[in-house]
Amino acid sequence: MVVRGALALELVPGSQPxxxxxxxxxxxxxxxxxxxxxxxxxxxxxxxxxxxxxxxYDPAEALRPSWPLHRRLEELHARAPQxxxxxAHTARIIAFGxxxxxxxxxxxxxxxxxxxxxxxxxxxxxxxxxxxxxxVAAAFEQALLERGMAAAETALLAQDxxxxxxxxxxYLTAYDLAAMMALQxxxxxxxxxxxxxETALLAxEEDAWLDAPPEPLLRYVDGTVRxxxxxxxxxxxxxxxxxxxxxxxxxxxxxxxxRQRQLTAILKVHGLDVQxxxxxxxxxxxxxx
Length: 289
Known about the structure:
Elements: E1 2-11, H1 24-41, E2 49-53, H2 59-62, H3 68-79, E3 93-96, E4 119-127, H4 130-147, H5 152-162, E5 166-173, H6 174-187, H7 194-202, E6 208-210, E7 218-221, E8 224-230, H8 232-239, H9 246-269, E9 273-279
Helix pairs in contact: 1-5
């Protein structure tokens, strides 16, 4: 069983880390402090292996279907040497950093086009037997969002190692990170999109709609988002049936197209494929999605 989490680094506004990843020694040192901090929130964490990525990412890179960053850590953990000789399992700290050239191997390399945000996350994974992991997961859900600040020594090491100006360093579960992202999207007028993203993350086999005019019409199904591709007359029929002014219709349709491009871009950043389905002026567009 695994527990997914992240060390979240809130940066000073306008600043960016000078380093994308840590060397192996630095990654190991930071991972050791992270392990100590996590055990202070849940004692059972000390009985689990900590798998730590010595690199920082945009939150959207962590919040993708199937949790690809954390899944990669699972794969690396599975390849790590195990204790032999019939000895009892001792919890390990397994840290991964950049190579001698400062390069992070794919697929753990952060996407450069997503640099620039005020929040960077350093993912980690706790792996172990189901009993300890369940206890840790429950304790983290209770503790981290409310009081999960990193210790001062940990925050300072992360700041120095990444050459970053860090205002706050705190621990989050993967679900805490999703809740924080949902709140941020609500603040910037993107709350209508979140149910599709949440479904893709937490219930990928389910179906979800964004069907709330004047928003674009979207459907998440079978791991893909389908977007209704209206032409001008189709858009007018659904969104502006009573508008007589052609100029206002043109402006409204242009605004709609811009909004659809924005939502499509956000969905793609979260790792979702978006397919545009042409929708004629007549008929129910929902039937096509």
